[in-house]
Amino acid sequence: MQYELRQRVIEPRRQTFQYVANRLGDKPASRYEEGTLDIQPTENFHYRPLWDPSHELYDETYSAVRLTDPYSYRDPRQFYYTPYVTNRAALHDAFLKSLAYIDDRDLLTKLPVGWASLLGTVLVPLRHYESGAQLISVTGARFAYGASIEQCLSYAAFDRIGSAQMISRIGISLGQGTDEDLIAGKEHWIGAEHLQPLRRMIEELLVEQDWVVSTIGLDLVDRLLYPLLYRHLDEAAIGGGASAYGLLAQHFATWYVDQRKWLDALIAEWIADPTHGTANRKQLAAIVQTWLPHAIDAVTAVADKTEALVGSGALDFVTTTADSVRKELDDLGLVEQVQS
C-alpha cells in the first residue's frame, strides 16, 4: 500500500471581521485595527442619562472639539491591551530595579540636604497631581467619542495612577519604609504655598464639563512640569551630587516622551479635520488662551521653590520652556491671542 501526501491550502472565506472589512476592505488587518475600528456604540441606547438628558449615553457633542470620522485618528503606538500591558510592565520593572539599587545602597539618605528636601516637599506631593490627572483622563475616556481616542485616554489614566504609585514608592523609601513622607507630602499638597496654584488648576480641571478642555489644560501643565522635574533637574542632579534623583527621574521622562506621541497626533488630527478643523482650531486656541497662563503660573511657583532648595536655574528654565511651548502652539495657530 502506498500513501501520497499532498499539501492543500484552504483560503479563508474572509480576511478579517466584517466591520473592519467595511472600512479597510477584505484584507488582513492588524490586531490594533480589529480591536479599535468602529466599535464605538452608536445606536440602540435605551435612555438618556438622567444627569444630562440633552445628550445620549455616548455622544460626540460632549466636547466642542470634534472629528468628522473619529477613526481618522489612530494611535501612532498601535497600542491595544497586550502590547500596552507588556510595555508598561517592562517600564515598571525597570523602575523597581532602579529603586532597589537605590535602597540597597541607601542613596536617598545620602542625598544633599536640598535635594532630600526637594523630594519631600515637591516630588512626593505630586502623587496627588498624578492622581488628579488620572481622574481627568478617566473623564476623557468616558466622554470621548470613538474607540481610537477613548483607549488612548484609558491607557493614559492607567499610566497616571501608575506614576502616582511609583512616586508613593519613592516616598516610602525616603521615609525608610514608613509612610511619614507620604503623610507630610499630602499636607504639602493641601497647604504648601508653592503647590497651591497647581492644586487649584487640577481641581478646576476636574469639574470642567468639556473633556477636551480638561485634557488640553492638563497637557499644558505637563509640557512645563515634566521637562522641569525630569529633564532639567535630572541634569542638575548629576552636578549636585544627587545621582539617585536622576535614576528615578529617567522613568518619568521616558513615559512623558511616550505620552506626547498619541496626544500630539490627536491635536494635529483635530486641526486637520476637513469639516470641523477651523472650528476646532478656534476652540483649542481659546483653551490655550485660558489655561496656558495658569499653567505657567503653577509651574513657576514649583520652580521658585525648587530654585530655593537646589539653585538649579529652574525659574529661567521654566521661562525658556514656556517660550518654546508658546512657539510650538503658535506654529499650530493656537496662540494668536495669548499674551506673553
UniProtKB/TrEMBL annotation:
SUPFAM superfamilies according to UniProt: Ferritin-like (SSF47240)
**Keyword hit for Oxidoreductase:** yes
Q: Recorded GO terms, molecular function?
A: monooxygenase activity
The record's listing under Pfam families reads: Phenol_Hydrox
Reactions catalysed, as given in the entry: propane + NADH + O2 + H(+) = propan-2-ol + NAD(+) + H2O
Catalytic EC class: oxidoreductase
Q: EC annotation?
A: 1.14.13.227
Keywords noted in UniProt = Monooxygenase, Oxidoreductase
The protein's name is propane 2-monooxygenase
Q: Which species does the entry assign this protein to?
A: Flexivirga oryzae
